[in-house]
Amino acid sequence: MDATNERTDERTGRRGRPRSFDRDAALRAATIEFWERGYEAVSIADLTRVMHIKAPSLYAAFGDKKTLFEEAVESYVQEFGGYLAPALTEEPTARRGVARLLREAATSHTLPGHPRGCMIITAATNCTPQSAEVLQGLKGRRNHSIELIERRIRADVAVGELPADTDARLLAVYCAAVLQGMSQQARDGADRETLEAVAELSMRAWPHPPAADGADHAARAEPAGAGRSSSERRSITARRSTVDRG
């Protein structure tokens, strides 16, 4: 089948004939490739190779490279990187939410059999001007994460869980800096236990509650992984199960 016929078949397939490939599997392969090598380094030839499809099929099913990358990012967030919002909303305080977030990041950044680090952080770090829109898209996602953390911190300041003079913006940026550093350390070979220790150490920079009692201090001194909520344990178990199935 030549390229013209294949493209025609793909278009008619949308109206009734099923595709000759598994779209979800192809998207997952593209996600892993972008995650491992970054947007700029991956070519259409690389994508067709790992997705096991021809270029006309890629364009028909996913659009251009940029559109495919955007869908791959969303796929990554859904399967591997969606732990930020649950951590901040399910835990009773910003402190515990961020502690959980960092622990889950340590696990996600070092999943066996997968690229290391966070795709949102590493996939578009050295883009050319032609890829500026891709860079801005990931930057927007990272900045949105900072905003979510900041909003949770401000809520705790408002109810007296954190001191009134807490700089919510600076503390949120600090948390993001720790996350980004953990991602790079994972790329450089740090294991999960090391990243969990970094996460625990970083929490010592948080301001103390205005009326912290002994129990609060003990909670802050918990080792990484201690005191995980049932929802956090389910989240980690689900990701590990996904790895096992892969």
Give structural notes.
This protein is mainly alpha-helical and 246 residues long. It is built from 13 helices and no strands. It has helices at 3-13, 23-37, 44-51, 55-62, 65-81, 84-90, 94-108, 119-122, 132-158, 168-187, 192-202, 214-220, 230-245. Helix 1 (3-13) runs parallel beside helix 4 (55-62) and helix 2 (23-37) packs across helix 5 (65-81). The model is unreliable at 1-16, 213-224 and 240-246 (pLDDT under 50).
Topology:
Blueprint: H1 3-13, H2 23-37, H3 44-51, H4 55-62, H5 65-81, H6 84-90, H7 94-108, H8 119-122, H9 132-158, H10 168-187, H11 192-202, H12 214-220, H13 230-245
Count of DSSP-assigned helices: 13
Largest sheet: none
**Secondary-structure content class:** mainly alpha
Distance N terminus to C terminus?
Answer: 32 Å
Q: Report the β-strand fraction as a percent range.
A: under 5%
> H/E order of the elements?
HHHHHHHHHHHHH
* Number of distinct beta strands: 0
Using only C-alpha atoms, the radius of gyration works out to 21 Å
Q: Residue share in helices?
A: 55-70%
Low-confidence stretches: 1-16, 213-224, 240-246
Mean pLDDT: 84
- The dominant shape is elongated
